[in-house]
Design a protein that fits this description.
Blueprint (H helix, E strand, L loop, with lengths): L1 H21 L2 H10 L3 H16 L9 H6 L1 H17 L3 H5 L5 H26 L6 H15 L7 H8 L1 H28 L4 H4 L5 H24 L4 H21 L4 H13 L6 H25 L6 H28 L7 H8 L5 H12 L5 H31 L18 H4 L11
Helix pairs in contact: 1-15, 3-15, 5-13, 5-14, 5-15, 7-8, 7-10, 7-16, 8-10, 8-18, 9-10, 10-12, 10-14, 10-18, 12-13, 12-14, 13-14, 16-17, 16-19, 18-19
């Protein structure tokens, strides 16, 4: 009916306008000052809005509308994949301390192992039947969601641990997303969906080559297109087309869309592109509204009243936070001497990255039609887990302040523009023993 179509158009247009508004630099600046993630500040409201829009009495995100939005949904997955891939710049990695590599590995792998183990036990406790392939697949997907940490607020953490330590933590948070995508790619290769959805029937080794080759070809194609851009508007237009093509081809072959697009983005980051920093800024500026609309669609399938999701979320949070803490303890032993204390490092890396929800939903769309209850529980676990983790981090910070460990030491006082300004910005020794 025309009235139904009008309601759907007005509802989706209003949501898109709100997403663009919440992507304003002032909103991002406020988040950084408060030290909260986009999931807490704007993500949860959009998930709740999606749940409301899907209600029968509202009728905006109906099953048919969600089916029609599938290409846009995959486009959002591809855009996030490109952003993650651009972080994998080999020239940037060469400039990092050699001892920071084990820190990135520990802070990614240890939480994945603890999450896979505890969540597997939780699924068994909920009565999920043991099925070797499906059980291993679900555990690996949840493990991939546990690896990435939310980007830190540099302004806040420079005051807490010093500039050098804050920059190292920031590098860890930008690279642990790559680890999660690697696991997601392994899952997509080893555990293929139904043959009717894959278009081809190939062995896992062939699917690995297809994934790597497709991502490489799409990255080179994107590079060739962007070289012809004469201004920022043309660059954005060509980038939109490249991401849409990459996501569409990966989705058609039933490959993991963010993984293929991340490979393309990583190749693009290491080619001699004219303005790589400008390209990154364009991707990050557009990522926020795309991510919020993505969460709106996710909210339409969210079932927060299912107790299984809450139980799995509790196991997910406990395992992930414990894994980050254990990884921080070992990282302090093998990492650079300028790292903050293990407890401070664990607090910095505990908040869950918004990409975790993208990873989870990407796997859910890849294996659609199989175990819908388990898929819903896993999505609930990652969404609820992100909020619960933020609460746990705030409690840990409050407890440390209670015992007298000031997390925000007073910054040094120096003349506003005097010649000794740089000397006055010498690192401050925090109560944790870091700089």
């Amino acid at each position: 009916m025309p009235s139904d179509r009008l309601r759907i158009v007005i509802g989706l247009a209003s949501a898109l306008g709100l997403a663009v508004l919440l992507a304003h630099p002032r909103v991002k600046s406020l988040e950084q000052r408060l030290g909260v993630t986009v999931l807490i500040s704007a993500g949860v409201p959009f998930i709740a809005m999606g749940a409301i829009f899907s209600h029968d009495g509202v009728g905006i995100l109906t099953p048919q509308v969600l089916l029609d939005l599938q290409p846009a949904f995959e486009f959002g997955l591809g855009w996030v994949g490109f952003v993650v891939g651009l972080h994998f710049d080999v020239r940037k990695l060469d400039a990092l301390p050699a001892s920071l590599g084990p820190v990135i590995v520990l802070e990614s792998v240890v939480p994945m192992l603890t999450t896979a183990g505890l969540c597997a036990m939780a699924l068994l406790g909920m009565g999920v039947p043991w099925d070797g392939n499906a059980f291993a697949r679900d555990a690996l997907v949840l493990a991939a969601c546990a690896a990435p940490s939310a980007p830190i607020s540099m302004e806040l953490w420079e005051r807490r641990v010093g500039r050098k330590a804050a920059r190292m933590i920031d590098e860890v948070t930008s690279l642990d997303e790559v680890t999660g995508l690697v696991v997601l790619g392994v899952v997509a290769i080893l555990f293929r969906p139904d043959e009717l959805a894959t278009r081809w029937t190939l062995p896992p080794s062939a699917w690995l080559l297809v994934t790597l080759g497709l991502g490489g070809v799409l990255g080179i194609l994107t590079y060739v297109l962007l070289r012809g851009a004469r201004n920022a508007a043309e660059e954005l237009t060509l980038l939109l087309g490249a991401v849409a093509l990459s996501a569409g081809v990966a989705g058609y072959l039933a490959l993991s869309v963010p993984v293929v697009c991340a490979i393309a983005g990583a190749l693009l980051a290491n080619l001699p592109i004219r303005d790589l920093e400008g390209l990154k800024k364009t991707l990050l500026d557009v990522e926020r509204p795309i991510y919020l609309i993505f969460l709106l669609v996710v909210g339409a399938t969210w079932r927060p009243l299912e107790w299984q999701g809450w139980l799995l979320a509790t196991a997910f949070v406990l395992a992930r936070v414990a894994g980050k803490r254990l990884g921080a303890i070992w990282s302090k032993r093998v990492g650079p001497k300028d790292l903050p204390s293990a407890r401070m490092l664990a607090i910095a890396l505990a908040p869950q990255s918004p990409s975790s929800i993208v990873f989870m939903v990407s796997a859910a769309t890849l294996y659609h039609g199989y175990g819908p209850e388990r898929v819903r529980w896993a999505i609930d676990a990652v969404i609820i887990g992100g909020v619960l983790t933020e609460v746990v981090v705030r409690i840990l910070e409050w407890r440390r302040r209670r015992v007298g460990a000031d997390l925000t030491p007073i910054p040094p006082v120096y003349p506003s523009d005097g010649p000794n300004r740089e000397a006055a910005q010498a690192p401050v020794i925090s109560p944790e023993g870091g700089t």
